[in-house]
Amino acid sequence: TNSGGTSNADFPSGDPGMYQLDITLRRGQNLAARDRGGTSDPYVKFKLGGKEVFRSKTIHKNLNPVWEEKACILIDNPREPLYIKVFDYDFGLQDDFIGSAFLDLTSLELNRQTDVTLSLKDPHYPDHDLGSILLSVLLAPREEQREVTMLMRKSWKRSSKVTKNYDVLPNMPSRAGNLWHRIYSPSDCVLLTLFCVSSNQNHETFQTQSLRLSDLHRKSQLWRGIVSVTLIEGRELKAMDANGLSDPYVKFRLGHQKYKSKIVPKTLNPQWREQFDFHLYEERGGIIDITVWDKDAGKKDDFIGRCQVDLSTLSKEQTHKLEMPLEEGEGCLVLLVTLTASAAVTISDLSVNSLEDQKEREEILKRYSPMTMFHNMKDVGFLQVKVIRAEALMAADVTGKDSFSKSDPFCVVELNNDRLLTHTVYKNLNPEWNKIFTFNIKDIHSVLEVTVYDEDRDRSADFLGKVAIPLLSIQNGEQKAYVLKNKQLTGPTKGVIYLEIDVIFNAVKASIRTLMPKEQKYIEEENRLSKQLLLRNFIRMKRCVMVLINAAYYISSCFDWDSPPRSLAAFLLFLFVVWNFELYMIPLALLLLLAWNYFLIVSGKDNRQHDTVVEDMLEDEEEEDDRDDKDSEKKGFMNRLYAIQEVCVSVQNILDEVASFGERIKNTFNWTVPFLSWLAIVALSVFTIILYFIPLRYIVLVWGINKFTKKLRSPYAIDNNELLDFLSRVPSDVQVVQYHELKQDPSHSPSKRKKNNPG
Asked: Ranges for the C2 domain (predicted)?
């Protein structure tokens, strides 16, 4: 132990990441028992800035465990406390929380080893004695790293000097690398798809274009049109299974854009009736590659056939019915293809602001005025996003894998399938982008996602933080600082991003669009089996079922006269309703329930609670995802159990769908999204009036005639259920947690964020 330590009252304001914390996890004393046998299987997590930086081994059946494990942690901000959490490991179940503590790094002396004893606490039971954890800690500046860092920086400058003056499109994350397009400018007709560091000629060309755009403050139209493809059906496809049938699905590809249809089981003449939209980048069109596959559980899918659609041969602003015979197979596909003009998706500097130009603003307001409610139903509104700057971002080498203590951040702005990127600001934790993005809104219930990455030339980009902002929650023209969240959007990560967002939309179009199917996103990573995700969905499902069970118990208690006044009131209400029952009373009762909840919210008696259970399960799921990414090579045996895993994933997804359905109904009546609740009030009011004045037989007659003649009137119409389409716009409890905006608080600590569930 170095007794000549330096006082740590004031940390020098040096480069972030230049402190090293050496921790020896010694032992635990008198830990709380969490198992039936009066013991626990404890392990310890260290967290810094909301991110897990170390996890100890598990000591089985011991309340006084001895670990003697060492960890080396790079410290970005010594004023941020180290969060220590102790759990009891339970095989196959959610681990039990034992206790937590904080280590204030500013109380340590530099270059001096200190023994620390931390008492474990549970915010739910602050008076309980949960034991203690003994540590040895040494905090020191990383002086020995500075020489190496400076040498690496010189090398980095030589390779990046020619790129930092103009927008460079970074490598995207490996999980979604095939989904991201590169930005190009039709004004210069240069496609920025390749970036060659070794070519000086290319550097000069790119730099000239960037300067030209910057000097002229010119808007860049990022794609020239939209290709709408409706997959109607397949005819006489090739049988690939032993039963003489197939389970066909279709994959579409146009450049980097990919879609996958649903699977239609056991048929050679499948009916899909699904619609997909592609961005058209080339003036002369492009070629859509289409492949048909047979789904096989437990083995590789069988190839049925392929075909191509040459868009250059199709006229614009017109719907084409195509019957495409399959090559290398049998049968054909029936498609409807429509080419339309480009949506207003642009990127520009702050000096080019459509909404500040009075003439342009009036044109936009006129386009979405009530007078145009039935013109171009797909054009619901206009979104403008100003990406101004970010502050206090996470250093890219916080894990110690690189030798740099800075980041090279760039920002990705997404609205459904529209994805735009800023340029990269090199070696900066407080980047300024000052870019404006504009989008056409197809669905007012869409969620704007803004993600910050760190560019890395040698591997895929590193995730720095993300925010998800529902369009209906945006306050126009207000510059706000959004706290960046982790990948699961459940808790804060380091840094904030400053955005100014404006939304203009037509309420009538938005309401009608709510009753239509949601836009499908590009092909995403397939679901995999996750213990935490399966457990989360099971608990959500259980909570929905318990609501019904509790309601049944409540009704049963009325029959049993457990509370005579309540039972008497219920009996009189039953007699009155049954004697006077009319069908219109059903929507009227739902209408009254909505009105009652609205009254509670307005009067300040809102009893809705923040769902910390779902939030904590989501955080545990993210940690499991991180472990699975690191240990994927060690889990190769799961590939040999593919069939079993697929069944488990199906059960996992079914639980999610059922639980989400129940939560969406609850959140409709809870006024989670006021726009949707008001829309439900209008619909229920109309239904009540119709049922009151029109006999039921006439309503059923109209409904039946519409159903029987729908295919005759519109043979290629896409089937949909208006009620399910409406509920699909209502967020589930998981989405409510993900979309919840975190408040910026300089004194924020993990204890405040996790006060409801420290586990």
From this structure: 2-118, 207-324, 358-484
Phi-psi region of 217 (alpha: psi -120 to 50; beta: other; left: phi over 0): left
Give me Rg for the CA atoms of the chain. Answer: 30
Mean pLDDT (the chain, rounded): 75
Q: Are the C-beta atoms of 472 and 184 separated by less than 8 Å?
A: no
Q: Residue 82: which H helix or E strand, with range?
A: strand 82-88
Checking if the pLDDT of 181 tops 80, the result is no
* Ramachandran sector of residue 181 (left: φ over 0; alpha: ψ -120 to 50; beta: rest): beta
Closest CA to 391 of 367, 407, 372: 407
Instruction: Please calculate the CA angle 425-428-429 and round it to the nearest 5 degrees.
Output: 120
The answer to whether residues 322 and 303 touch, using CB atoms and an 8 Å cutoff, is no
Phi and psi torsions of 728, nearest 5°: -65, -20
Domains of the chain listed by start with CATH number = 19-141 (2.60.40.150), 225-341 (2.60.40.150), 349-514 (2.60.40.150), 547-604+641-739 (no CATH)
Distance CA 257, CA 396 (A): 29
Cβ atoms 673, 601 nearer than 8 A: no
Helices (H), 46-121: none
The answer to whether the CB of 594 falls within 8 A of the CB of 685 is: no
Handedness of CA 669, 675, 679, 685 (dihedral sign): positive
Q: Can you read off the two tokens belonging to residue 76?
A: 């970005």
Residue position matching structure tokens 């790094």: 105
Beta-ladder partners of 190: 185
To 10 degrees, what angle do helices 674-693 and 507-514 make?
70
What's the pLDDT at 139?
87
Among residues 305, 249, 314, 302, which one has the least CA distance to residue 278?
314
Name residue 477's amino acid.
G
Q: How far is CA 224 from CA 186, 219, 440, 501, in A?
A: 8, 14, 13, 24
Burial label, 101 (beta-carbon count in 10 A; 0-12, 13-18, 19+): buried
- Contact status, residue 508 vs residue 438, Cβ threshold 8 Å: no
Q: Specify the DSSP class assigned to residue 124.
A: T
Which tokens is 443 given? 């669905």
Q: Tokens standing for 623?
A: 């940690």
Q: In what order do the strands lie in the sheet with 319-325?
A: 271-280, 225-235, 332-341, 319-325
How would you list the strands of the sheet with 66-75, edge to edge? 66-75, 19-29, 132-141, 114-119
Strand 66-75, strand 51-55: pairing: unpaired
CB 352 within 8 A of CB 436: yes
Nearest to 750 by CA among 17, 75, 115, 104: 104
Instruction: Name the H helices within 632-673.
Output: 637-640, 642-669
Q: What is the largest CA-CA distance in the chain?
A: 93
How far separated are the first and last CA of the chain, in Å rounded? 34
Q: Mean pLDDT check: name the lowest of 292-296, 362-366, 517-521, 599-603.
A: 517-521
Query: Tens of pLDDT along 748-757?
Result: 443 333 334 4
User: For residues 75 and 555, what is the distance between their CA atoms, to the nearest angstrom?
Assistant: 58
Strand ranges across the sheet with 409-415: 220-221, 346-349, 432-441, 381-391, 492-505, 478-485, 462-470, 447-454, 409-415, 418-421
Q: For 694-730, where are the alpha helices, taking DSSP H only? A: 696-713, 722-728
- pLDDT tens per residue, range 315-339: 877 788 899 999 888 899 999 888 8
Distance CA 661, CA 541 (A): 10
| Higher pLDDT pick, 91 / 293 | 293
Tokens 């009319």 map to which residue?
582
Q: How far apart are CA 562 and CA 568, in angstroms?
A: 11
Sequence-distant (6+) residues with CB within 8 A of 564 are none
pTM to 2 decimal places: 0.54
